[in-house]
Write a structure and sequence with these properties.
Order of helices and strands: EEEHEHHEHHHHE
Largest sheet: 6 strands, mixed
Strand content: 15-25%
Radius of gyration: 17 Å
Length: about 220
């Protein structure tokens, strides 16, 4: 009898605590779980630009594995350009070989936080707390489609109506635009230029992409 399957080992984490230096320098990823009114689990993948606090996207699906994470990143890169780094925990969907190979091909470095240290991904943890307290805990979700609509509305409000003390009490959308408008060699905008690489949205991952998911992740951009 075959033994229980083992979870992939976490890849090395050099400079795991690297700090964001500007727009598209570090994107933070994490999962939030909820249930529908019928008791079915729904997963939300949240993607935050750490430097500007801008919510890049929220993806809702009943299943979220490495293939769905790759598709979500490709869709986000097509709109916003590519980050230099990803920061996330050691969840199976993030340490999966398929995602690691795609990131290596795309030239994006992944920065895993230390196990049991969610504060090392504090920007995303803070966003997820607000998303749960101010959105998910107040809504009775009936389907993935409804989850899409609810998450889209929250994301829009968060980006355009919620000032943050950490970014001089500006809303994330305003602050991100301000940083992108700076000269390429100035301050926090220094990292933005070379990392805005929309061509990565076309990077193929068919060699290690599993069969299509019957319930694929839904992108909310």
């Amino acid at each position: 009898m075959a033994g229980p399957s083992r979870r992939p080992k976490c890849p090395p984490r050099p400079e795991a605590k690297i700090r964001s230096e500007g727009v598209n320098d570090v994107w933070c990823l994490d999962l939030v779980f909820d249930v529908t009114s019928s008791g079915a689990t729904i997963k939300f993948l949240t993607i935050i630009d750490e430097g500007s606090r801008y919510c890049i996207d929220i993806i809702a699906s009943r299943q979220l594995g490495a293939a769905e994470v790759i598709r979500a990143l490709q869709a986000s890169i097509a709109v916003h350009g590519a980050p230099r780094h990803l920061r996330c925990d050691n969840g199976g969907e993030f340490v999966a070989r398929a995602l690691q190979e795609w990131l290596a091909q795309a030239g994006i470095r992944i920065r895993f936080i230390e196990p049991g240290s969610p504060w090392q991904n504090g920007v995303n943890e803070s966003f997820n707390g607000r998303f749960r307290d101010e959105c998910l805990n107040r809504e009775l979700i009936g389907s993935v489609l409804e989850a899409q609509v609810i998450a889209r509305a929250f994301r829009e409000q968060y980006n355009t109506e919620r000032p943050h003390s950490s970014i001089n009490y500006q809303v994330p959308a305003e602050y991100r635009t301000q940083l992108l408008g700076q000269a390429p060699g100035s301050g926090q905008a220094r990292q933005a230029g070379p990392s805005l690489r929309p061509e990565l949205a076309c990077t193929s991952h068919s060699a290690h992409n599993p069969e299509p998911n019957p319930q694929p992740a839904q992108t909310l951009t």
